[in-house]
Amino acid sequence: MKKNTMLILLLSIIYCLSAAKFVEIPKMEENLSLDVFKNNENVIKEFSLQRDNQADEIVSFKFENEVWNSDEKFLRFYNSEGQLHQEIKLHFFGVWKFDEMVTYHWNDYGNISYEKHHKYQNENWIDDYEVISTFNDDQILMITKNQWNQDEQEWYTAYMISYTYEDDKLINRLIEEWSEYIDYSAIYSEYTYNSNNQICEVISSNIGQDGISLYSDKVLIEYDEFQNIVDLIWQRWQENDWQNYYKEISTFYENIQESITIKYWQNENWENSIKYIIESDDFSKIVIKQNWGNQNWINSTKHCTYQNSNNDNQLIEYFTWNNSYWLPENRQNFVYDIQDRIQKILREIYFENNWEFDKKIVYSYDLSSSPEENILNKFMINIFPNPLQYHNKAGLSFEITSEYNDPVEISIFNIKGQKIIHQQFIKNNRGKNILNLPKPSNLASGIYFYKVETKKFKKCGKFLIVK
């Protein structure tokens, strides 16, 4: 775990504003509000590790010498509840060879309570590390990572994260770390909420081996009437006072984000650094990154996402600014099936005025069971109408087929991941059910996501609202 206190502080906010599940600590240079300019290599990796698509096998290929060559493979095995139980990673070196293995255990609320990681060495699986998550119902209380010391043949605690709540709101968090270099270090964070129960202030302190606590960082957050973050200031504790360091300003139009401006505190003023300009419509989203220089905003990179009207194909393109025009860098094409499951990702790079194949990932489903035993047939969802016309007062209907008689929860999220609707249906009979969800008012046209959950299953997908 990295020791950069800013990184830990922003993780605190990210964790609180997202679902209570274990997440890896992000890189500090990544912007808090905007998550589109990720490393292009990681886009492929992230999609290969999706857990909601129920793929049994994922294989990646590299295009070399005009031939597609096998590179990596993920084999997945699911429990009787349809949850990922084990994932095995292999690399291709003439033949497929084991690399890593992860085993997952889930609680009754659909959260991963235990995961154990193994490495394959000398023709044997050896322990690497384990992550233990403790919950109170669906609320995370503690995360512990234990590392296996192969030389000493024993487990030691690498870090521990503890959470304290009051009235279902997180009020503090303690991250403790032990390593061979530092016997003990900790970061303690306290959270303050505004009248709308939104996090408006986070103060973090470093705790040393002597137990002395010293202020380190503070984040101040302001929201608009739609609960969007419009102003975020990060301060550092220096010379016995809070000193400005970093600032984000976000603008919105009809609840759709238009820009993010990043500033740094220099010479007693907020100085421009980076700006993201966001343009979106029903089927596309364009994000332009600009850097501040010579008293002007200068284009840097551009990220474009296009979705076709059938929702079965998505194209993502990356460009860099070359003095006077946008130069293509790479593009990735995502293909989905009728059940909204990803089938293939094809990545191409732009080289000497031509598009050339680079990588592809192929997803396979239903390999380990017959159609009658297929877990997907035990819980199927059809959403209609899709696209949903803006003036359609009937709202959305979910046709859910399930072999179990469980309550159903439906959540709707906007493209930023903010939950805008949550509704629980107490009665859900076995077989086919039609659940109607009224369309909320004041929603802009564009892409939205749904999550349907029962005690045994979880399904995610997307739909469109068009004017």
Task: Kindly describe this structure.
With 467 residues, this protein is mainly β. The chain has a domain at 375-466: Immunoglobulin-like. 6% of the residues lie in helices and 62% in strands. The chain has helices at 5-17, 40-48, 375-378, and strands at 57-64, 67-78, 84-92, 96-106, 112-121, 124-136, 139-149, 154-166, 169-177, 185-193, 199-207, 213-223, 229-238, 241-253, 256-266, 269-280, 284-293, 296-307, 313-322, 325-336, 342-351, 354-364, 379-384, 388-389, 396-402, 408-413, 419-425, 431-437, 446-453, 458-466. It has a 22-stranded antiparallel beta barrel. Strands 24-30-29-26-27 form a 5-stranded mixed β-sheet, with no helix packed on it. A hairpin with a 2-residue loop joins strand 1 and strand 2 (67-78). The chain is globular. The two termini are 46 Å apart. The relative contact order is 0.10.
Low-confidence stretches: 1-52, 369-377
Mean pLDDT: 81
Spatial separation of the terminal alpha carbons: 46 Å
Radius of gyration: 24 Å
CATH class of the domain at 375-466: Mainly Beta
Largest sheet: 22 strands, antiparallel, barrel
Overall helicity: under 10%
Number of strands: 30
Dominant shape:
globular
Please identify which CATH superfamily of the domain at 375-466 we are dealing with: Macroglobulin (MG2) domain
Strand content: over 45%
Could you please say which CATH topology of the domain at 375-466 applies here?
Immunoglobulin-like
Number of helices: 3
CATH architecture verdict of the domain at 375-466: Sandwich
Structural class: mainly beta
